[in-house]
## 1
Amino acid sequence: MPEAFILINTTAGAEAKVVEVLKEMEGVEEVHVVYGTYDIVARVNIDSTSKPKEDVTWRIKRMSEIQSTMTLVVADS
């Protein structure tokens, strides 16, 4: 199953809430709060057979506490 890393910016002070939601979300394998340009990094499994609106990356982007994301799909590991 393809993997991706999602770099996430949250609204101020929402990091802990977003982390808890992400940890419970199907397809999310790891979640880390980080320092730098982004607030959170999540490692996810991408189901290439699902409809885009049902994909984990779409569900993450729809959270109201998330301001922006950048998705990096793993090419080779």
Note: The longest helix spans residues 15-24.
## 2
Amino acid sequence: MLEPGNNNELPPIPGKRYFTIGEVSELCGVKPHVLRYWEQEFPQLKPVKRRGNRRYYQRQDVLIIRQIRNLLYDQGFTIGGARQQLTGDAAKFDVNQSQQIVKQMRIELEEILKILRR
């Protein structure tokens, strides 16, 4: 598990449509019980629930979780402060999040380029 201060070392998000809670836990460096708690505290976080109440997160959910993690662990916000920050800045992306998106897109484009060159 990643330490709270190592947000820059989070792995890139794979090009999948849905992620299990275990996969999101690995991708975001947060334990599953914390993710379930954050679902109650942050209205923006709404994973799809299927059979047996199993959670399936989408890419946007993973990005929101990473932003929440950054606000709480790296910037030192409280839960209430992070919630307020997310609702106030819903249209704005954090610089770290923008960099992560660009990095992820670059990786995916390089993979596509490799496939096309074959």
Note: The chain has five helices and three strands.
## 3
Amino acid sequence: MRKLKVFDVFSGAGGFSLGFEMAGCDIIGAIEHDKWAADTFSYNHPNSVMMLGDIESFNESYLISRLRDKPDIIIGGPPCQGFSVCVKNAGDPKDPRNSLFTEFVRMARIFNPPILVMENVPNIVKAKTKNGEKVVDIIKTEFEKLGYYVEHTILTASDYGVPQMRQRFVLIASKKKFKYPFPKKTHYVRDGSDGQITIFDIGEGGLKRCPTLWEAISDLPDIEAREGAEIMDYTKLAENDYQKWCREGTTSLHNHLAMKHTKRLVDRFAAMTWGQSVSDITDDRLKQRKRNGNGEVSNSPYDQNNRRMHPDRICHTITATFYGNFVHPYKNRNFTAREGARIQSFPDRYVFLGKPTVVSKKLLMKEGRTGEAYLCQYSQIGNAVPPLMAKAIAENILKQINWDNEER
């Protein structure tokens, strides 16, 4: 059976592509507008063609000429923060026809692949235009116009062994209707705090237990705030199958560099226990201060900032700003990029390029530091589709088709 050719048209750092690659697909190309995310993708997919730039700027002849093969599957997650309008005064900002979603549809018109897989935020199923039209209905109609059967659902990452509370909207458009368009769950979540459960204990229905947060990261080198390095040696042995899987294909560790917290912030973290955030701090000396408030204590600290994660549960959702969302279960610091990558189910061989963190893009532009106005490692990781979830989607597609007998 030949390898399926996959084209990732909103690739980011490549989590979606990695999942399809792990399932046995050939990633032939990608489009990404952010330089650092594109660098990460290219480093980890050296045989894929990277087209760096805005997708709207690539015409049909250019796209066809750059790819060595015609794609069997097109994947991508067109950005849809409120369905940001691409062109000023283009109309209703919540209408996907005024967003980069139209570029995803354009790729379908150009290449006419048998299958497209689109992912997005779960709340897209609730979104409506100003006229009251459901966004998902509009999206479905656009693909149906091109001759596709369309199915969509919300998938939960932990159902496929990803140790975090993450859900994603997934839509599959196919020329032939799938009997089972979405993968069955392979894992269940259980509190492992009793210490009696091994990582791959089989539960009801033959499901494996999803790793907990600590089971995902406990073998990484012990580092405090301001410690670690972009490249370092492992200092511990892998303790379970998930950690062994993460280490396959590499002998060194990348992106395990702790943030440079102040002593006051470290002390603040030290006053927090599992489940607590900065809003639970009772010591006035350690509470957050008002911005430009001359040291005055803030009365409304952001509850989601710097919450200490429970080691024996799966992690909360890793987002683009997770460097400020979570505190390590035992160390008085935020997660490193590598710890976030483990929680997203990226193997350690997957290296993230660019700076670990950057200041706001607005400030960078103001200071003329345009060469730094890209997605940092944390944002690349948080924006990604968890590879193990992507792998489950891909494997479910592959087992239902016989590509050797398909006409292209």
Note: The longest strand covers residues 149-156.
